[in-house]
Amino acid sequence: MPNKTFFWFFLPTGLAMILFIGLPIISTGIQSFYAQHDQIVKEVKKCDPFGCKVSIVVDQEETSKLREAKPLGKFNGFGTYVDRNHLAFDEISKFWKETNSTGEFIDQVTNLPFYKALIFTLTYCLFVTPNVLFLGFIIALSLNAISRKIRGPLIFGTILPMIVTPLVGSLVLFWMIDAKGIIGANLQFLMDDPYLSLKSSKTLTWITIIIYGIWHHSPFAFVVFYAALQTVPQEPVEAAIIDGASRFQRVRHIVLPHIYPVVTFVALISLMDNFRVFEPIIGFSAEGSAQSLSWLIYDNLVNEEVILFGSAAATSIMTIIGIAILLTPVLIRTWREFKTVR
Amino acid sequence: MEYGLDKRSNSLKTFNTVFIIVWLLIACFPFIWTFWGSFKVRADFFSRSDWWYAISAFNTLVETGSQFTTNAYSEAWTEGEFWKASRNTVIVTVFVVSISLFLGTLGAYALSRSTERYAFWILIAALIFRAMPHITLVSGYLFPFFQMQIWGILPTTIVVLVAINQPFTLWLLYSFFKTVPKELDESALIDGCSYFQAFRYIIMPVMWPGVITAGLFSLMLAYNDFTVTALLLNQENHTMVPKIQSYLGTNQHEGNLMWAVSAVVSATAPLFMLVMFFQRQVISGLTAGAVKG
């Protein structure tokens, strides 16, 4: 296709992506260097019969004037990146000096908002992704062994958790697991602990969200693995059966190597999706004990008084850097393959 | 794929069946339970004293005189203004799907027929864009949109959703277009068609399965979106998913949980029906990028 024709064909979609994905990333970058204005204060002299008092009050008029004149806020450089709500370098060095043991130091650091969110996000990725791969593969293997006639409805049932939006999916589970729901109430009864509830325990909340993640993402892994299983050639499998290979050996040495490229694909996609975990935190009302990077940004953006654009942007940029680190190995591999193909 | 030579033992068969049944229960029961509960009153579905009330419907019987009630639905749809939210969802979905498909087919066709190096880099860039968490993009939109005073209205959200959706649509349609032999449009070009004519009259007619699949995925994205719609639309223009969240209530004001339950069922039912109908397309779409490489 000539370059000119390509240009006109690609222009609309390219423009859409540049305007609404490329530019916003740049806009986020710029915003992250600004912080909202401080409130302007003025001294007010109040006099009553007993004398005069000077008090300091917020000058609403001047403040809003300044906000209108410079809506982006004041230039803050990397100030937002290193403040207490983000990388918190000052606080960390202070903790380093003041705490006595490493455990205590780590404890203090992980209580800072950004690190808390980072740890939750990474823990979520770390537990959900491998389990999703494993469960999806097992479901695909078992469904594959079931008679073809009834597979259709079974597949439909299996992919239900994936097609609902995460907010709805987590709500549906939350209403069952909550202290007043069917599972929660029975758990209280079984454990003989009337105060056992999701909100009371941080560990329990984390486990629930991780279980939700596995429940929600496994169908995706299942679908891809299931399709890949259909392409496994029959001859080596039959040869292996004749040679006396056990079922496990066949899966391990024939099926797995065949679908290996697909495994990396699923791992990559679910890693990307898990890194942006956010809606389940709202669905489970788990803000108190579990916060993710995306949730921090959301929280800044729905702030009631002033929207914290700078703070949200700084967290966004760091999230994007995180994604970039996750993607680098894949990009390097693709680049190598591309070079060898040429 | 049944292994002809393979005589599996009975115990393995039983284990397999049991596993599938357990998994299906885990996957489907929450939806069935929510559907069942949506016809009860709050005191039953969220019973403080005894979860068995949700099944025996004790309070529902006391409050409404029948074991099933559709009060939650009628209240949510009228008083809760869920009709408005679903109308907005329909508008957003229809526009997002049609615009995405229009832009996506053109772009993906060009990518699949180009042999230049930049086509590869565009696909890689699309992959990187696909990986961006939506909330980071939203944090980039909010400020400029406030300044331009285009925040809160449906057209802005539609354009944003179309753009966010493009990378995935491009990849999907690209892999579909690759399966259409090049000779088909080349012969049309020799016969004197322009590229656009070849695309419009020769390629599009054989591309319907791919277009339907891509359309389904755009539909699911627009229909299911929470991040963009919750932050870019004002109260008046909220679509279904942010509306459901608003029923949940906050620390300041108590929500109406039964509205949320019935709204969840109302929002999920059309989606399930659609997927039931188009199951084959959904699955082929999910695997297009992966299996074909």
If you had to describe this structure to a student in words, what would you say it looks like?
The complex is a heterodimer of chains A (342) and B (293). With 342 residues, chain A is mostly helical. Chain A has helices spanning 3-31, 60-69, 79-82, 89-98, 102-109, 113-144, 151-163, 166-177, 182-191, 202-229, 234-242, 247-275, 279-283, 293-301, 309-341, and strands at 34-35, 41-48, 51-58, 74-75. In chain A, helix 6 runs antiparallel to helix 12 and helix 7 packs across helix 10 (202-229). In chain A, 37% of the residues are buried. In chain A, a hairpin with a 2-residue loop joins strand 2 (41-48) and strand 3 (51-58). Chain A is globular. The model of chain A has no long low-confidence stretch (mean pLDDT 86). In chain A, the strands form two sheets. Chain A has a two-stranded antiparallel sheet with strand order 1-4. Chain A has three domains: 38-74, no CATH class; 75-105, no CATH class; 112-341, MetI-like fold (Orthogonal Bundle). With 293 residues, chain B is an all-alpha fold. Chain B contains 16 helices and no strands. Chain B has helices at residues 10-37, 42-45, 53-56, 58-64, 71-78, 82-113, 117-131, 134-148, 154-179, 182-190, 195-206, 208-224, 227-232, 240-247, 257-277, 279-291. In chain B, helix 5 packs across helix 15 (257-277) and helix 12 (208-224) packs across helix 16. The longest helix of chain B is centred in the first third of the chain and has 32 residues, at 82-113. Chain B starts with 9 loop residues before the first helix and ends with a helix.
